[in-house]
Amino acid sequence: MKILALLLTVGMVAILAVLIAVRIQRRAGRSARFVSRRVLNAAEHVLHHRLQLALTPQFHILAHVSFASFIGAEGGTEAEKSFLRARARRKIADFVVCDHAFHPLCVIELDGKSRGVERDTVRDDIIRQAGIGLLRYNVQALPTPEQIRSDFVRTRSQGSRLEIYGGGTNEAAASRTAPV
Fold it and tell me: Which distant-in-sequence residues (6+ apart) come within 8 Å of 88 by Cβ?
């Protein structure tokens, strides 16, 4: 009986020691924390300013918009719609130009180093199927407000499925150029 009481005491002391050690370790590991950061990087900031000069006050310019916010799925079975929504999930448009009722009119993508041609092709296909205009610009050759306005008018006048790849010598964009 004394042995059982001794074993229980030793066990409880061991458990207590482990719990204290875990609590100390958790407190020590709290050096990571949330911090604010800029919403737009330098190139995005410049392009956003030029978009505002070119397209406001007639249109709204939204930055870093989830595809799920402006692209849905309809028709077909629930499984087919679920598959389409899953394709769009976790994709973010650099900029979305909306009318005053916040209907998406055009997606503007800034091509740089972050994505490859295959990923861009999937994104372009989703945007195209949704019937939304698409403008792509190279981060190394940002367009002027006048060029943005001209490109945007061309997407609207020739149908929202028109894609314009402007600015610079982006070989990936040039390989995907749609007829204008």
Answer: 67, 68, 71, 73, 126
Please name the helix (run of DSSP H) or strand (run of DSSP E) that holds residue 149, with its range, or none. Answer: helix 145-157
Chain mean position to CA 24 = 38
pLDDT digits (tens, 9 = 90+) for 18-39: 777 777 766 666 688 999 999 9
First vs last C-alpha separation in the chain: 91
Instruction: Supply the DSSP symbol for 90.
Output: T
pTM score above 0.90:
no
Structural domains in the chain plus CATH codes: 42-175 (3.40.1350)
According to DSSP, residue 167 is labeled S
State the Cα–Cα distance between residues 114 and 124, nearest whole angstrom.
Answer: 16
CA 17 to chain centroid: 46
